Beta-ketoacyl-[acyl-carrier-protein] synthase III
Amino acid sequence: MYTSRITGMGKYVPENIVTNDDLSKLMDTNDAWIQERTGIKERRHIKKGDGNSTAVMGVKAAEMALERAKVSKDDIDMIVFATLSPDYYFPGCGVQVQEMMNIHTCPAIDVRNQCSGFVYALSVADQFIKTGMYKNVLVIGSENHSGGLDFTTRGRSVSVIFGDGAGAAVLSRSEVDGHGILSTHLHSEGKHALELSLKGPSTNHWVPQLIEENPQEDIPYYPYMNGQFVFKNAVVRFSEVIMEGLKANNLEVSDIDMLVPHQANLRISQFIQKKFQLSDDKVYNNIQRYGNTTAASIPIALCEAWEEGKIKEGDTVVLAAFGSGFTWASAVMKW
Ligand code: ACO
């Protein structure tokens, strides 16, 4: 049995900064409301004409990760791409990345697990490495939210939260004993699928049907979020899945050197931090600057924590996520 280890991380966020004040020019909102409820000060949005898309941002993050891992694109055995905002309905972004980076005909998989997408993708990659089938897997989380949100007052409770960006990791067969991914833990509960969802356009909810189902709405194809219900479930599931990961490895909360939670909402992270009595230096947050970038949030945050020297060799790092599905997941690793 082999183990896998992150050998390189990369990130990319569009240059275009959108502050809360910028949003208040488009809709009835304000900086105080957004900061108080979510902790977000600004986020990045793709600008029309800047050449970015979910796949393009994924490539930029992936190139950085490969360079840092010192792994050639020719040595990539598989691509796993997590997103809820693919460039095309089909095919997925994984094959687009493969083409844009001129990677050979390795398998490319898209993971559709929203905010938990990166941890799910990491887990998929980990299984292929553990069995000895592959040596290097490129794992990407990328989102272009700004292209599909309602920036009018009607959509304000959702559109102020999300931002664009991408993060990537190269997961490689570990050469160092006792380092790497110790375990991953995945869960889902489909009965709450519609509490945080985008119905269409999809083959089951094509545009005429969406309009028929929502006669009062002029453009009914924006995401729906039952905010308070999501919040209540998130804090419970985050806690459970972190504890599950620790227990599986005979670790205590005090063994955590760095917790990188999905950047859903600063209030959720703070709730978890308080519950586990973790000091500020043991929980990484950057939602203030980027908003919620869904599948990209964990790899961007992990990359920045590592760049800032907040994660060191041998540290116990825990990733935890919760999101639409509902899905939730954790990964425990020795860095
Ligand atoms: N600006 C100003 N006012 C707003 C805004 C806005 N952007 N959005 C909603 N409001 C108003 C509402 O219309 C409402 O007004 P009313 O009282 O006159 O009816 C009032 O603010 C309160 O609205 P609520 O939806 O009850 O606000 P709440 O306190 O629940 O905060 C929030 C909303 C921030 C979404 C909260 O429910 C939350 O944090 N939920 C967790 C969901 C989350 O984190 N999602 C992230 C994505 S999912 C994920 O990553 C797991």
